[in-house]
């Protein structure tokens, strides 16, 4: 995992793109992987930035292997 | 505008969908309108929810006509 | 299934939208269902139109239950 | 322009991706550029392939500068 921060039991990272369109297209690409894992992030977009926050709700909002797995997948997209 | 709240100089609304996929597809549809207006929201997604927050940064973070215009467009999508 | 044609062992239908953006967003929404079924169409887009063509390659390019299932899902999106 | 073919007054190219999801996400990314140019391709998808065909309808279906411009943009995405 590259450049993820751990804060308040969440793994967070901000991804930066050239344009708004590229940010949205990246979210689409990520969504297919997210669906496959069935592990949904809390993520937000403003213009060319996507901020991702990962935690596992059904494990009492702790960081689990599934969060780390999704973090690694998002890094590789 | 339907069901938008005004708080801290922002217009906010949460849109609810049946599935994660429908939420993401709605964001794509909205993105084309957002690009045309060239007025980008702060918006976030968790599973089947999309929370939208509108303000105009270059007017000192106040709610302007452009925010209301985008709010109405998003309501109609 | 509504308005699907059967020709050359394919189920085909053209979906019409108001804008190019809505056509593309519909393709995204459909893609999540397509991935779940793991049954991929041949489909094409020009401006506000999406033409879908369904057949089952590994059954010798015949129309199978899986094609009808996807056709019904696409009708309901 | 890299690897585009000219046939029947159309510029054509097939883009290949690792997955269906990446193909669709690329179409989304391309769509924002297409909207900006207001020059819409005929393009089709099967699984991890996107076939693009460019021509200018209002110039009697000939290849124009606009087709070449879009071809170059798609190469760079």
Chain-wise SSE layout:
4 copies of one chain form a homotetramer.
Chain A: E1 5-7, E2 10-16, H1 20-37, E3 42-46, E4 49-54, H2 65-76
Antiparallel strand pairs in A: 1-2, 2-4, 3-4
Structure described in brief:
Four copies of one chain form a homotetramer. With 77 residues, chain A is of the alpha+beta class.
Structural commentary:
The structure is a homotetramer of 77-residue chains. By secondary structure, the first copy, chain A, is of the alpha+beta class. Chain A has a single domain, classed as 2-Layer Sandwich (Gyrase A, domain 2), CATH 3.30.1360.20. Helix content of chain A is 39%, strand content 27%. The first copy, chain A, contains two helices and four strands; from the N terminus they run ββαββα. In chain A, strands 1-2-4-3 form a four-stranded antiparallel β-sheet, covered by helices on one side. In chain A, strand 3 and strand 4 form a beta hairpin. In chain A, helix 1 packs across helix 2. The two termini of chain A are 12 Å apart. The mean pLDDT of chain A is 96. Chains in contact: A-B, A-C, A-D, B-C, B-D, C-D. At the A-B interface, helix 1 and strand 3 of A face helix 1 and strand 3 of B.
State the assembly state of the protein chains: homotetramer
Q: List the uncertain runs of chain A.
A: none
Shape of chain A: globular
Query: What number of domains of chain A?
Result: 1
Features:
homotetramer, 77 residues, alpha+beta, Gyrase A, domain 2, four-stranded antiparallel beta sheet, 2 helices, 4 strands, 27% strand, globular
């Amino acid at each position: 995992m590259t450049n993820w921060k751990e804060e308040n039991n969440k793994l967070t990272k901000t991804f930066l793109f050239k344009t708004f369109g590229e940010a949205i297209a990246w979210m689409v690409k990520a969504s297919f992987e997210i669906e496959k894992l069935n592990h949904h992030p809390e993520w937000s977009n403003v213009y060319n930035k996507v901020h991702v926050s990962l935690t596992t709700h059904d494990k009492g909002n702790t960081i689990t292997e599934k969060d780390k797995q999704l973090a690694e997948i998002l890094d590789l997209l």
